[in-house]
Amino acid sequence: MNAKDQIDILSAGVAEILPAEGLKKKILEAEKRKRPLIVKLGVDPTAPDLHLGHAVPLRKLRQFQDLGHKAVLIIGDFTARVGDPSGRSVTRPALTTDQVKANAKTYTDQAFKILDDDPGKLEIKYNSAWLASLDFAKLLELTSRFTVAGLLVRDDFMKRYKSEQMIGLHEFLYPVMQAYDSVEIEADIELGGTDQKFNLLAGRQLQEKYELEPQVALTLPLLEGTDGAKKMSKSYDNHIGLTFEAADMFGKVMSIPDEAAGQGRFSMITKYYQLALGSLPDEVASLGAKLESGELHPRDAKSQLAWQIVATYLGEKSAEDAKADFEARFKVKGKDAALQIADKMKLSKDPRKPDGTAFLPHVLKEAGLVSSSSEGRRVIEQGGLRVDGELEGNLEARLGNEFLIEIGKRKKKIITLPS
RNA sequence: GGGGGAGUGCCCGAGUGGCCAAUGGGAGCGGGCUGUAAACCCGUCGGCUUAGCCUACGUAGGUUCAAAUCCUGCCUCCCCCA
Q: Which of A225, A215, A158, A169 has its CA nearest to residue A192?
């Protein structure tokens, strides 16, 4: 592919390219020398649960691979012992090596679903390989290339410093270690979220001191979560986990708003295509046009998006099932649709009294549809319970041997009582 | 080593002796509306066959007719000085 097209694809959806002309230069150079670019992505194996936000840089990395470049995934097993101070107002707790190991495995399992694992295009390295054996002399040599003032200009540190919160000395070393990773693998490009900008630039600096061609930093925007406002994060409860069950993942994608706050009518939909799915710029553009013209219904656009996302992580079969399930649950109404998707379950005890009636809150609790009988009572009082398709407003009711229970729109079960 | 502060329901966070199962926000849940599990509106949100009762405000005791609120010990976390 020619250089211009490559640049178009690679710079799509990117927050910043530093320096601005850097990507172009690197690509032209690679073309001239007929060698692939080395594209680095550093991974901090601290959180075991990955979500779609984490997938953004991985998608970009995959685009590089697809254009023939070489991805180097650095598992920061060593740096994880320090914890990235980026965006943190407090020192992160250090992890044990076992935790780091387990997290790294979870990470790579997920990452392989996005990346091309052709060994010519992907290399995985643990940075303990070179960092663990650094001796103090080498460390001094490394650190002498950075200045305290240089580190302090960084926002995270400055804020903490000014507000008199503690900054561990070891935290100063984080950018240094990460920068050294870039030296070690001679990275041409490094990817990261916008919050990683400082660390990526530190890599540039250090490479220069080691007389290497400095890497180009490519930062990617942070993906908004399902609320369409804040960045996706587990602590905001707006994340879509890569290990979610198919139906849940599908539904969560369907629940993203069309529009990200103040960014155009279908901006969230197109953004997810671009960032979470890594669709190419022309595809995203034509999708946006179709949505604007009304040719494509936003619901269908999201449904396709959800399908593809589920298919990536859990397979096409799961995606198909999740889609069918979603439609049966929310598009088609009525008892027949409910019967199709309801799970069957058998209660071990018969809750009925001699007169054939049963206290429904207990039945709901036994069936695992509510977590307490008080909650069951509430649901019934609020008009959320249907038995065999009929609204049931009484706490006690006569029950047959098999019946369909529906609570709200989502929970549906066919209950069988022991005879 | 010395001094100070804090621990409240799933999370954040009010509450400083009775009016507290505990304000408010978020998440969750139910209803309405809708192209959607979006947005918005309404309701609900410890447990219990619930006009009542039980358990709860770090933990163990104590004072009091009455404690999340006062006292003491213990545990945990944080900050400042050295």
A: A215
Instruction: Tell me which residue has tokens 């530093």.
Output: A18
From the CA of A362 to the C1' of B19: give the distance in Å.
35
| CB-based contacts of A136, cutoff 8 Å, min separation 6 | none
C-alpha span between A342 and A247 (Å, rounded): 13
Q: Can you read off the two tokens belonging to residue A126?
A: 């643990």
The residue with greater pLDDT, A340 or A307, is A307
Q: In this structure, what token pair is assigned to residue A107?
A: 């990470």
CA distance A415 to A419: 12
Per DSSP, the residues of A176-198 read: HHHHHHHHHHT-SEEEEEGGGHH
Strand B nucleotides, any atom under 7 Å to a protein CB:
26-31, 35-39, 43-50, 78-80
- For residue A368, what are its two tokens? 């695992």
Range 291-350, chain A: CB under 7 Å to any strand B atom? 297-299, 302, 326, 329-331
Q: Which nucleotide is nearest to A369 (CA to C1')?
A: B29
Q: What residues form DSSP beta bridges with A359?
A: A396
pLDDT tens, residue by residue, A62-87: 999 999 999 999 988 887 766 555 54
Q: Protein A231 CA to nucleic acid B60 C1', in Å? A: 44
Which residues, including other chains, have CB under 8 Å from residue A258's CB and lie 6 or more apart? A265, A266, A267, A268, A269, A298, A302
Name the nucleotide with the smallest C1'–CA separation from A386.
B30
Alpha-carbon separation of residue A340 from A23, A181, A307, A343 (angstroms): 53, 54, 20, 9
CB < 7 Å to strand B — which of 146-165 in chain A? 164-165
Cα distances from A179 to residues A42, A139, A370, A381, A384, in angstroms, run 10, 13, 51, 61, 57
Q: How open is the CA angle A282-A65-A309, to the nearest 5 degrees?
A: 60
- Contact between A216 and A207 under an 8 Å Cβ cutoff? The reply is no
User: Beta carbon of A23 within 7 Å of strand B?
Assistant: no
Write down how long chain A is: 419
Element (H, E) at A285: helix A281-293
Q: What is the pLDDT of residues A9-61, one digit of tens each?
A: 998 888 889 888 899 999 999 989 989 999 999 987 766 667 888 889 999 99
Q: Give pLDDT, residue A86.
A: 52
Is the reported ipTM for this assembly greater than 0.85? no
Residue A395, nucleotide of least CA–C1' distance: B49
What is the reported pLDDT for A266? 84
A374 touches strand B (CB under 7 A): yes
